[in-house]
Amino acid sequence: MTQLDYDQLLELLAAETVSPRGAALARALRPASEYTRVRSLLIETEEARQLIDSGASVPLSAMSGVDPLLELLGKGAIYGRQELEQLAAWLQAVRQMQRYMADKAERALYLGGYAERMESCPQLRETLETSIRYGEITDEASPELGRIRRHLRTAEEQVRRRIDQALMKHRDSLQELVVSQRGGHYVLAVKRSARKQVKGAVLDESASGQTLFIEPQEVVAAHGEWSSWQSEEAQEESRILAQLSSLVDAHHRELTANAETMAQYDFIFARAKLAVRQQGCLPRLMDAPILRLRGARHPLLGEGTVPLSLRLDDTVRQLIITGPNTGGKTIALKTVGLLAMMMQSGLLVPVDPQSELGVFDLVFADVGDGQSMSQSLSTFSAHISAVAAMLARASGRTLVLLDELAAGTDPAEGIALSIVILEELAERGTRVVATTHFNEIKTYAANTPGCRNARMAFDPESLRPLYRLEMGAAGESHALAIAARYGLPARVLRRAEARLQTARSGAWPDTAQMSAAKPTEDEWPDDEQDAVKAATRSGGRPTAQPTLRQGDSVWVHPLGCIGIVYKGPDPRGEVIVQVQGRKLAYNQKRLTLQISAAELYPEDYDLSIVFDAKETRKLRKQMSRKYIEGASIESGEEPGKRS
Q1: Following DSSP, what letter does each residue of 337-383 receive, concatenated?
Q2: What does the buried/exposed string (b/e) look like for 569-584 if buried means 16 or more CB atoms within 10 Å of the residue's CB?
Q3: 3-state secondary structure string, 258-282?
Q4: How far apart are CA 501 and CA 516, in angstroms?
Q5: pTM to 2 decimals?
Q6: What is the mean pLDDT of residues 200-229?
Q7: What is the end-to-end Cα distance of the chain in Å, rounded?
Q8: d(Cα 547, Cα 506) in Å, to the nearest integer?
């Protein structure tokens, strides 16, 4: 799940909740594998999203301070005033949610079912609201408490009256005419020199020792009575809290059910809020292991993501994605896996509403290099360990995602092993999306029923990936183009190109040849079907052309290297060939066709990209649109003559 960023998605979901219990449900979310369960989850989320879209304010509760109390239910605990007041407020929120869902019952049938499990406990709520207000136990909590507090107020008034009288009586003996408190007793600030004039208990003195804080003797008796009533008040308050706690415990079952239901509502509406944020929608849910995605976006990458479209079903069971590094292959792979897991988790997905997503029993992913320092596993060992686990459980209802097939080991062995693994999964009917750079695996995809190539588009003009998935064609890695973009010296690139062309001589068809491969036969025009079938019967090897044409790859015997035909033979049989940026003339007898232009390049490919500098192509494009005074394009240097 981590490889597909599912854990990051759950953190985003948890951030949309308002309660700790709702957040815990969000983080514990896992994909369901039963069609009916997935359908119910999606309908819940869609109903919640529709309520949010209507502008309705949902009375969700943060359950602040309630969770600790709920954890102690049934254990004989005595709850505090603040906890009980928060419980009363929460029960009010439960009541509001009941009313809200009853009002929305016709529009949210599935969500309304949760409200039927809730009990607002009106008697308990009213008792708590009557007994505790603003964090204090009210006089109405019990008749006895009311009586005690009346006596308490009378006693306190008597103490205040006595201390005020003492203040006036001993005013000449005081440092200042103020009444203060020490340890809950009212005291006067008496000069040390006048200690004998004020009878009473010394409770404190100033730092200098010149002021004594004395409780006058005439106040002591009144204060004693006041303290007695305070003690009775505390005892009665403790009794009331115990009584209220007992009443709360008696509603243990209802309160627990309410907590679970409110957490579920928080969780469901969090799914809906995430859908709004990610522009998710409810796709067509299919009770089959299929994916037909249209306009699919990775949910964690924002609106700037280039949407992709693809299909995995009974016709296309395996999809091999190719293209340049940094071109988006791994993101495409993660998008497929994450959207499948999202949908099966009851989350609305950022796709076109016409997309069709089925239910898989399992989703396996091997993405990234997988190297483990703690287990001392190499990249290849980690990949194979993951693949072995997949093969042990893969079935016709499994989705397998493999990043960089054949990577991390000897290419020949890795390719052979990868193709056999794909064949094994194909026999089981497993749905597979894999990425690769190897032509042999692309060839396997082009020639295997139920398997299809796809490529990440690349702009040869800017040498930048377009992050667009194109079905039905294999892509090139464009390693040299990307290397040029990142500043590799031109001389190194020219030598690499020469070696590449030599290595391709007589080889199996490369990715440009396979770009003619179409999705499925029922989608091809008849002439394209015939062409592909003919190529398959011939083993897929190129057929030499009788006449050399522009763009053909040829072996230049005098130089012992590969060149590209710039102009076909003239009446004397002279052919102009571009070799390492220079245009040279040779007799066609000294040239041998390696790969025809038709096989090297896609249909309607602009060959000026091969022969002209970028500045020249740009100027030609501008001149085709409008007249540019003084602008001209030279035909290039005169070809050198070689006999």
Answers
A1: HHHHHHHHTT--BSS-TT-EEE--SEEEEE-S---BTTTTB-HHHHH
A2: beeeebbbbbbeeebb
A3: HHHHHHHHHHHHHHHHHHHHHCCEC
A4: 21
A5: 0.70
A6: 90
A7: 65
A8: 18
Mean pLDDT of 275-292: 95
The alpha-carbon radius of gyration of the chain (Å, integer) is 41
242 phi-psi bin (left φ>0, alpha ψ -120 to 50, beta other): alpha
Residue 100, SS3 per DSSP: helix
Q: Which two tokens stand for residue 477?
A: 């890695």
Rounded Cα gap, residues 333 and 352, in angstroms: 18
Helix axes 217-250, 143-169, angle to 10 degrees: 160
Q: Where are the alpha helices (DSSP H) in 431-550?
A: 439-447, 479-485, 490-504, 511-514, 526-537
Q: How many CA atoms lie within 13 A of 439 on its CB side?
A: 14
- Residue-wise pLDDT tens digits, 356-414: 999 999 999 998 654 443 443 566 787 888 888 899 999 999 999 998 876 777 788 88
What's the one-letter identity of residue 364? F
291 token code pair: 């994916």
With the CA atoms of 271, 274, 278 and 283 taken in that order, what torsion angle do they form, in degrees rounded to the nearest 10? 10
pLDDT tens digit sequence for 152-201: 999 999 999 998 998 898 888 888 899 998 988 999 999 998 888 889 88
Phi and psi at residue 108, in whole multiples of 5°? -140, 75
**Distance (Å, whole) CA 478 – CA 465:** 10
pLDDT band of 617, cuts 50, 70, 90: low
Q: Which two tokens stand for residue 360?
A: 């898989």
Nearest to 531 by CA among 516, 544, 542: 516
Residue recorded with tokens 């439960």: 94
Render the burial of 515-546: b for 16+ CB within 10 Å, e for the rest.
bbbbbeeeebeeeeeeebeebeeeeeebeeee
Q: Which residues contact 5 (CB under 8 A, 6 or more apart)?
A: 300, 334, 338
> With DSSP H G I counted as helix, E B as strand and the rest as coil, what are the percentages for the chain, rounded to 5?
50, 20, 35
Q: Which two tokens stand for residue 320?
A: 């091999």
**Closest by Cα among 371, 456, 444, 373 to 408:** 371
Distance in angstroms (rounded) separating the CA atoms of residues 96 and 108: 16
How many CB atoms lie under 10 A from the CB of residue 245? 20
Tens digits of residue pLDDT in 510-555: 444 334 333 333 333 333 333 333 333 434 444 444 589 888 888 8
User: What is the model's pLDDT at position 514?
Assistant: 39
